[in-house]
Specification:
heterodimer; A: 7-stranded mixed beta sheet; 11 strands; B: mainly beta; 6-stranded mixed beta sheet; globular
Amino acid sequence: EAGVAQSPRYKIIEKRQSVAFWCNPISGHATLYWYQQILGQGPKLLIQFQNNGVVDDSQLPKDRFSAERLKGVDSTLKIQPAKLEDSAVYLCASSLGTGIYGYTFGSGTRLTVV
Amino acid sequence: LAKTTQPISMDSYEGQEVNITCSHNNIATNDYITWYQQFPSQGPRFIIQGYKTKVTNEVASLFIPADRKSSTLSLPRVSLSDTAVYYCLGEYGNKLVFGAGTILRVKS
């Protein structure tokens, strides 16, 4: 079974620039998550999709972050404009559902804002 | 939203059994307790999940007391490759909430 694919693997941008991350979940997984992981901390949920609908985006900084999941499959997360404090690893995860299913994470995109 | 609490770090030696305890006082009745492992530059990896009593798989055992206010991840005979961060998660409703995790260092 193929895992969760994310790209790019690394990205360095200057503050106030924009950036986009891409995620391809495991085939058939209805639920997709984007997490932000700052160095030394646990991942923090940014947004959760169920198919192509948003279930929870309460911790997404909507003034600069946006995300979409086209046709309930791939997803993109965008930051515009980026701030220094956005430097982190952005992790995508997918699951069949919640509860007993467990989540599969991608390797993440490491963003450095300079 | 309640969070989980676990030790910041633990040290062990190869071949020993390691037990990492997590407290989750306010976990909801229907929510599961899940443990993940994370190596540097990788995403977290599912280890084990349980609701109550004991669950065992090929990697670890998970002990959950009747009150479900805590759980203990048991790693039998650890090796150097088990050095990683271990996260205890409560699934609160539809949210999977990570704490800061426990850094496990296995020494030879």
